[in-house]
Design brief:
single chain; alpha/beta; Rossmann fold; three-stranded parallel β-sheet; 17 helices; globular; Glyco_hydro_4
């Protein structure tokens, strides 16, 4: 409903690639529907039309693949509702609930075995495939691919850093008095982990834009600044829009701006910092019932597109995936922020943990760019999350369910609870995830 259709539109807009796209879904009719929608996008192609087919099995989809793209929903939105609703009863409000905090933790418990299964299938059927993970919690799940297939050539792709690049383009356009620049003209040096990312350098056409950004953030530190998504309706803006007050405040606190959206950034800090008063900080706690209604609307639009009542629109999205693939297939090198195991690209963060920084995509693969080091004590906060994510992944992959509660309890959102409350919440969330966590792991929890 989301990333597949975006990728189809981007492939139709692109003129560099000739793509043979195999779609696989546990829900076979969904894959068939998307193949039909893909064919309608291909009919509008500016280049070589992509070919779409639905595969009957995961091995069939993977055999001989050059590129694998993973976008799944771990469980159902109804499971995600429990991730949100149970912690809310204990005073923990979550704006997203898919990366960290109690919601992100249990989503990871459901999803790590799924990504490990996919990783092993890639090992067996397409061991040299270049693999992009779009699924959250991105850090843990990209790590799961490497745990299942250590030789995998995988990266995690996230569009959150686009937000600060759009802000800088807006600043530059306002100065120029013309819509001269887009986010693609803005270069940033990215440091952190997924959804808890920061930038310490910003340039546009060789100009250092950090002073202009600092002045912009200071001018809007109290009122905030928002930019609507094109085509977004009022309800979407209500639940997904922000005023960037969290990012501006993190700049004040740590000396460099947050690069992800406020709804994600807030979840990495203790409840008292931002989540306890989201209205004050200009963002909402997105309810899962809205996601369910939005899914129904997207299903209706998809059916209209499938049968031809709605025509695909030829336009380039803000996503970088097609540019990354084109570079990997031998096109011009492309620089993008991605999630990869830390091999020294970010000093001070745990070796081997999945971190987010820039990397160069080229015909030889993906090469991380040395990003430097986050300022203290920010580095300590990011490192704490990275260590917890790595330990969570190890515990699930090795079946050490007895280690999970202590990891859950150590999250900044949960630490303020009394031990009895934290244990009760953990046990209720475990029971609510019945059937989606491996039995051996669940018994040891």
């Amino acid at each position: 409903m989301n990333w597949a259709h975006t990728l189809m539109a981007d492939l139709a807009y692109d003129t560099r690639l000739a793509a043979d796209v195999r779609l696989y879904d546990l829900d076979a009719p969904a894959a068939t529907r998307n193949a039909e929608i893909g064919a309608r996008h291909a009919a509008t192609s500016r280049g070589v039309p992509a070919r779409y087919s639905a595969a009957a099995s995961l091995p069939e989809a993977l055999e001989g693949a050059d590129v694998v793209v993973i976008s799944i929903l771990p469980g159902a939105f109804e499971d995600m509702a429990k991730d949100i609703d149970i912690p809310a009863e204990y005073g923990i409000g979550q704006s997203v609930g898919d990366s960290v905090g109690p919601g992100g933790f249990f989503r990871a418990l459901r999803a790590i075995p799924m990504l490990a299964e996919i990783g092993r299938a890639i090992r067996d059927h397409a061991p040299r495939a270049l693999t992009c993970n779009l699924t959250n919690p991105m850090s843990v799940l990209t790590g799961a691919l490497y745990a299942a297939h250590p030789e995998i050539r995988a990266w995690g792709e996230c569009h959150e850093v686009t937000k600060i690049r759009k802000q800088v383009a807006w600043i530059a356009n306002r100065e120029a008095g013309d819509d001269r620049y887009s986010h693609r003209d803005v270069a940033v040096n990215v440091l952190g982990i997924n959804h808890f990312t920061f930038v310490d350098r910003i340039t546009l056409e060789g100009r250092d834009m950090m002073p202009a950004y600092r002045a912009f953030a200071e001018a809007h530190a109290e009122s905030g600044w928002s930019q609507s998504e094109p085509g977004a309706d009022a309800e979407h803006e209500r639940y997904f829009g922000t005023r960037n007050l969290v990012a501006f405040d993190l700049l004040r606190r740590f000396g460099i701006p947050g690069a992800a959206g406020d709804r994600h950034l807030a979840e990495f800090l203790p409840m008292a910092d931002y989540l306890a008063d989201p209205d004050r900080w200009g963002f909402s706690l997105t309810p899962v019932d809205y996601r369910i209604r939005d899914r129904a609307a997207k299903q209706a639009r998809a059916e209209e597109m499938r049968v031809g009542d709605v025509a695909p629109k030829i336009r380039r999205s803000d996503e970088a995936l097609v540019d990354q693939i084109a570079a990997l297939m031998g096109g011009a090198p492309f620089v993008s922020n991605v999630n990869l195991p830390n091999r020294g690209q970010i000093a001070g963060l745990p070796e081997g943990a999945i971190v987010e920084s820039n990397a160069v995509f080229h015909g030889g693969g993906i090469e991380p760019v040395l990003a430097g080091r986050l300022p203290e004590p920010l580095s300590a906060l990011v490192s704490d999350h990275a260590q917890r994510q790595s330990a969570l992944l190890r515990a699930v992959m090795t079946g050490r369910g007895e280690a999970l509660y202590d990891l859950f309890r150590s999250d900044p959102q949960v630490r303020a609870l009394q031990p009895g409350q934290a244990r009760a919440m953990f046990d209720r969330m475990r029971a609510a995830t019945e059937g989606l966590i491996p039995e051996a792991l669940k018994e040891a929890m």
